[in-house]
Amino acid sequence: MQIASIAGSAIQRTGRESERPSGDGGFERAFAARTRSAETDRLDAAIAAYRRESTMTPLERARRDVLQDMKLSEEQIAAMPPADREAVEKVIAEAVAKRLRLPKPERGGPQMTADAFIARMAARG
């Protein structure tokens, strides 16, 4: 009953009876409920972030990342004068294209298809 003695000393200091646990585990239940609520809020936020991320296309993610690197928002770009906006959009488009480019095969030849790879592995035995 260490909790009861801590709560009892708090009542003596504050003089408020409402802080005193009833002895039926109310304090523990309230603490557990508050902890569950905080954990649930964090989980809900993580799920919402995952859903937002999973609905974005690779192009949208690349554009978002480029804008973050440039410390710009879509709203700031929309508020720019047309000439500035066009120049910034060109820089963004080039950066997005660079991020989305796939690496070239190392041997310089055409990339092997999955079926060709499987057949090659099967032939090795």
Protein architecture, described:
It is a single chain. The chain is 73% helix and 0% strand. It has 125 residues and is mainly α. Among the domains are: 22-55; 57-102. Helix 3 crosses helix 5. It is flat. The model has no long low-confidence stretch (mean pLDDT 75).
Q: Could you give a quick summary of the protein structure above?
A:
Helices cover 73% and strands 0% of the residues. It has helices at residues 2-14, 26-55, 58-70, 74-78, 82-100, 114-124.
The residue-averaged pLDDT reads: 75
DSSP helix fraction: over 70%
The assigned structural class equals mainly alpha
Number of strands: 0
Q: How many whole angstroms does the radius of gyration measure?
A: 30 Å
Binned strand content = under 5%
Topology as a string of helices (H) and strands (E): HHHHHH
CA-based shape:
flat
- How would a textbook summarize the main sheet? none
- Total of helices: 6
- Span of the ends, CA to CA: 69 Å
Poorly predicted runs are none
What order do the helices and strands come in, and which of them pair?
Blueprint: H1 2-14, H2 26-55, H3 58-70, H4 74-78, H5 82-100, H6 114-124
Overview features:
mainly alpha; 125 residues
